[in-house]
């Protein structure tokens, strides 16, 4: 009976563990997200629900019906093998349209015993109306008509189509005036909208513009070209245009009185945060701890965020590591993120106060200086115990083995051996002290090299050189400058020719670069006027960032082929 019980207990435990593992696998982690955080009342958006296992149950969509109209639902099952482990997930995508304006909450959605977290979405009043009964039209808008140097301007294009189109092409408006940097603020989005009772397919493109000097910016109308399909017949190529825009760029204001050396940082919002690799109240002298300081700015590029200088604190040695730069696309545009890492080593025990960190920045929405702060922090360093003094010499009692050694080794030889060994150890110790002194002297006399300029400033200089070369008709210098600019923009996938560079930027620069490539390498050399290229080089609008462009229709037809 005892043997049987001994065998039964391990088997029972194994069965229980197996059931617990199966139960854990069955309980799926469920998340929800939306493709846009701000939409108009008459626009649709996508709600995506992801379960980290392939469960057979369906989400309970009924909780959405009070505040939203439900559209098409699609399901995707995914299986992946990572390090020999099979992982399955299931994704539901639901098309929704809000019933009312304001800040609306997407309630938690249940799938079996799991629920998603509630989400918030902003529903705006509809601002676009079709011009008459137009089946196709284009709108454009800028979020600011007056801004500051290096501040973000969001330029938003929308193409509305109530009919199917063929061979579509959307070109941004040409930007002229002061010198600007242009960045794509997220991928193109496609959704549905209802205007005056008519259903439209909408393609939206958002571009971030950063003026580099004061003055005015002019944006010509955006152009959408396509052939329209009506009643089974296709028209010739038609052109649809949006409105033009003019933006005033104000100069950089004077720094605040309390921060006369403030670095210019225009943004909508600036956030400072910190993390420690471990609890700073449990630090021993001589042991390193890492402090991560993150500064994020909404409406600013990550390369424009200033480096944070570590404070000089008595009792701490601070070593700076290479920063991490990244960006995130939000409803308010590009949020640049910079994370600085510092290794901190305490060299004495006790409480040590680290002073606060303050970053002045210019709030472009209210037009005034603000200061982002990290409060001061007190850390506690535990002193390392002093080395113990050597014990007092005590009379030694010779053992029998020691007596044998003494008898075997004559006294003068033993004295000479230990004398030479002591001299050798003393010489090695002196050499170590000298090497330490020399290395510390080299470190103290080493001059600190200035930090390299931000990438965007280097690109601006290259762009200026390219325009000058184009005006002078120097094709070789233009090609060299364009390739240099591309290496900085795409360090992991730099374009190898002007033609490849042209495929990554928008019109009119792309056409002018292809013209340059044709003139330079074509079978017939002809006179070339670089004035048009110099004008197009006032800004560079990247089509797709760090991604190879494949041949595809960027504006898919509203109806399937043959309708």
Describe the structure.
With 563 residues, the chain is of the alpha+beta class. The protein folds into four domains: 97 residues, Immunoglobulin-like (Sandwich), CATH 2.60.40; 115 residues, Sandwich (Immunoglobulin-like), CATH 2.60.40; 117 residues, Immunoglobulin-like; 82 residues, no CATH class. It contains eight helices and 32 strands. The strands form nine sheets. Strands 10, 12, 15, 16 and 17 form a five-stranded antiparallel sheet that branches. Strands 23, 25, 26, 27 and 28 form a five-stranded antiparallel sheet that branches. A hairpin with a 2-residue loop joins strand 27 and strand 28. The protein is globular and about 110 Å long. The N terminus and C terminus are likely disordered.
What's the total count of β strands?
Answer: 32
Shape: globular
CATH architecture label of the largest domain: Sandwich
Number of domains: 4
Beta-strand portion reads 35-45%
Which CATH class of the largest domain?
Mainly Beta
| Number of helical segments with 4 or more residues | 8
Report the C-alpha radius of gyration, rounded.
34 Å
Q: Which structural class do the helices and strands define? A: alpha+beta
Our measurement of the CA-to-CA distance between the termini, rounded to an integer number of angstroms, reads: 80 Å
Poorly predicted runs: 1-28, 386-414, 544-554, 556-563
CATH topology of the largest domain, what is it called?
Immunoglobulin-like
The major beta sheet can be summarized as: 5 strands, antiparallel
Percentage of helical residues?
Answer: 10-25%
Give the mean pLDDT: 79
């Amino acid at each position: 009976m005892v043997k049987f019980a001994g065998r039964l207990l391990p088997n029972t435990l194994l069965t229980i563990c197996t059931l617990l593992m199966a139960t854990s696998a069955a309980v799926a982690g469920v998340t929800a997200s939306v493709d846009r955080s701000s939409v108009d009342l008459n626009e649709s958006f996508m709600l995506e629900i992801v379960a980290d296992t392939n469960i057979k149950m369906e989400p309970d969509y009924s909780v959405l019906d009070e505040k939203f109209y439900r559209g098409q639902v699609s399901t995707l099952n995914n299986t992946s093998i990572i390090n020999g482990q099979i992982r399955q997930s299931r994704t539901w995508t639901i098309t929704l349209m809000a019933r009312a304006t304001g800040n609306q909450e997407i309630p938690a959605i249940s799938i079996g015993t799991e629920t998603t977290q509630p989400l918030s979405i902003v529903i705006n009043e509809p601002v676009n109306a079709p011009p008459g009964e137009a089946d196709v039209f284009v709108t454009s808008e800028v979020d600011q008509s007056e801004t500051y140097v290096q501040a973000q301007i969001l330029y938003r294009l929308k193409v509305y189509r109530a009919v199917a189109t063929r061979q579509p092409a959307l070109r941004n408006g040409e930007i002229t005036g002061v010198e600007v940097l242009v960045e794509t603020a997220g991928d193109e989005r496609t959704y549905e909208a209802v205007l005056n009772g008519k259903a439209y397919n909408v393609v939206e493109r958002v571009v971030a513009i950063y003026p580099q000097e004061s003055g005015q910016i002019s944006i010509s109308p955006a152009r959408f070209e396509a052939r329209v399909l009506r009643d089974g017949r296709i028209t010739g190529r038609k052109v649809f245009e949006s409105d033009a825009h003019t933006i005033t760029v104000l100069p950089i204001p004077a720094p605040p009185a309390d921060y006369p050396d403030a670095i210019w940082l225009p943004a909508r919002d600036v956030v400072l945060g910190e993390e420690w690799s471990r609890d700073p109240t449990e630090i021993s002298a001589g042991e390193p701890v890492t402090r991560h300081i993150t500064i994020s700015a909404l409406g600013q590029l990550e390369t424009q965020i200033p480096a944070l200088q570590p404070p000089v604190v008595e009792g701490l040695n601070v070593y700076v590591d290479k920063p991490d730069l990244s960006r995130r696309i939000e409803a308010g545009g590009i949020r640049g993120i910079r994370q600085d890492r510092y290794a901190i080593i305490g060299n004495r025990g006790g409480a040590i106060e680290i002073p606060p960190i303050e970053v002045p920045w210019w709030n472009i929405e209210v037009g005034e200086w603000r200061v982002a702060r990290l409060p001061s922090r007190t850390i506690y360093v535990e002193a390392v115990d002093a080395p113990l003094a050597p014990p007092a010499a005590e009379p030694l009692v010779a053992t029998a083995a020691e007596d044998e050694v003494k008898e075997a080794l004559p006294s003068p030889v033993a004295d000479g051996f230990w004398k030479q060994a002591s001299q050798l150890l003393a010489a090695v110790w002196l050499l170590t002290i000298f090497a330490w002194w020399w290395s510390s002297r080299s470190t103290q006399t080493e001059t600190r090299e200035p930090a390299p300029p931000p990438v965007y400033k280097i690109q601006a200089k290259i762009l200026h050189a390219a325009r000058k070369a184009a005006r002078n008709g120097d094709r070789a210098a233009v090609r060299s400058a364009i390739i240099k600019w591309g290496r900085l923009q795409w360090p992991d996938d730099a374009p190898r020719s002007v033609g490849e560079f042209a495929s990554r930027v928008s019109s009119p620069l792309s056409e002018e670069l292809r013209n340059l490539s044709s003139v330079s390498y074509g079978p017939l050399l002809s006179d070339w006027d670089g004035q048009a290229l110099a004008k197009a080089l006032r800004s560079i609008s990247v089509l797709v960032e760090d991604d190879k462009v494949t041949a595809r229709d960027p504006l898919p037809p509203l109806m399937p082929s043959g309708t």
